[in-house]
Amino acid sequence: MKLFFASDLHGCLPATDKMLAEFERSGAQTLVLLGDVLNHGPRNPVPEGYNPPQVAQRLNQYADRIIAVRGNCDSEVDQMLLSFPMMMDYAWVLLESGQRLFLTHGHLYNAAKRPALRSGDAIVHGHSHVPVAMRDGEQFIFNPGSVTFPREGYVASFGVLENDTLSVVAFGGETIASVSLR
């Protein structure tokens, strides 16, 4: 199983198109969207190429391949444009190994405020716009960074789960961080 993770698109069409091209190239079966899909939010500037209706149209072409969770900038009005559910605060993915990925945006649950997780589970979230791939005690923390508004000097990035390894990858192919789930 290969999963592709993206977070914090914030309605930016050029960033979305770039992300979808990387998703296609990756060969991943599933695109996991970790929230803040269409709206830029009041704390962010309006991104260049801001076009939520077109972003929705592009993403809807992949509706049967998307797992999405709600971000703090996502609303019921946004859901009306999308052909896939994205109003859940979290979702679970069960890996073949029995490990679980807890998918959330990061404003309710995050590395510092985790739900009940078992040894070997991972919390996967966006929200901070800062890439992370690490083991923390008996669990894993993964954040693919932001497609549109990277922070703390990082570049725009996405995430991939392949061969039991979670990796944050910059557009252009450089691995920023990775952690093995074994």
UniProtKB/TrEMBL annotation:
E.C. code: 3.1.4.-
CC cofactor: a divalent metal cation
Calcineurin-like phosphoesterase domain span: 1-164
Keywords of the record: Metal-binding
Domain of life the protein comes from: Bacteria
UniProt cross-references to InterPro entries, sorted A to Z: Calcineurin-like_PHP_lpxH, Metallo-depent_PP-like, MPP_YfcE, Phosphodiesterase_MJ0936/Vps29
Enzyme class: hydrolase
NCBIfam families cross-referenced by the UniProt entry: PRK09453.1, yfcE
Family note: Belongs to the metallophosphoesterase superfamily. YfcE family.
Official protein name in the record: Phosphoesterase
Organism placement in taxonomy: Bacteria, Pseudomonadati, Pseudomonadota, Gammaproteobacteria, Vibrionales
